[in-house]
Amino acid sequence: MTRALIPLLALILAGCGSTQSASQFGEVPIVLPERLSADDAGVYFATYRTYDEGEGVELLVSREGDADFRITDRPPSGCITVLAIVPPDRLVLCVDEVILQDDRAKVLAVARALQRGYTQAQKEPEEALSAITAEVPDADRDALAAELDEAAPVWTAGQPYFGAIERGPGRDSSVARDAAEDH
């Protein structure tokens, strides 16, 4: 292959898949609530199906520690709510306010990956359960299945799109909206 074709081939291959390059933002730690629940399905599904990598991030799931991204029922000080997991605000994705200001594209990439993960988990609950048990082998699949049957419809009930939040203090409703418009 001539050297002149290598850049052309790279450009063609880059356009074949995702909206971002697989390593544009790199690893992104995300902290989930302490207890495993069906409300985690979209996160695990996003990593299982590599929706995260398709958006240029690699979500690193944890249940403890510090991270710029966290799913919680009580965002800590300095963590801005950008996406509702369980509306209106029973469970939300929040992001460190500095990251939101300095790296909005990364925040949008995470939001898009989660929107796709949760939306597909609603459509494919058995696959969502497989995604969870692939990462958490000792999880009680039957209990999670029953919980998922109840939880999944709530994620989008009455919402124009997954993750929609209202404007207000400590919130940035434009992230979920912009991520939904990108897809």
Structure explained in plain terms:
- The protein has 183 residues and is of the alpha/beta class.
- It is built from eight helices and five strands.
- Strands 2-1-3-5-4 form a five-stranded mixed beta sheet.
- The termini are far apart.
Instruction: Assign a percent range to the helix content.
Output: 40-55%
Number of domains: 1
Strand arrangement, major sheet: 2-1-3-5-4
Shape: globular
What Rg do the Cα atoms give? Answer: 17 Å
- Percent strand equals 15-25%
CATH superfamily: Periplasmic binding protein-like II
From the 3D structure, determine the CATH topology: D-Maltodextrin-Binding Protein, domain 2
Alpha-carbon distance between the two ends: 36 Å
Largest sheet: 5 strands, mixed
**Tally of strands:** 5
Structural class: alpha/beta
Brief sketch in words of this structure:
The chain is an alpha/beta fold and 183 residues long.
Describe how the helices and strands are arranged.
Blueprint: H1 5-14, E1 26-31, H2 41-48, H3 51-54, E2 57-62, E3 69-72, E4 79-86, E5 91-96, H4 97-102, H5 104-123, H6 125-135, H7 141-151, H8 173-182
Parallel strand pairs: 1-2, 1-3
Antiparallel strand pairs: 3-5, 4-5
Helix pairs in contact: 2-5, 2-6, 5-6, 5-8, 6-7
List keywords for this structure.
five-stranded mixed sheet, 183 residues, alpha/beta, 8 helices, D-Maltodextrin-Binding Protein, domain 2
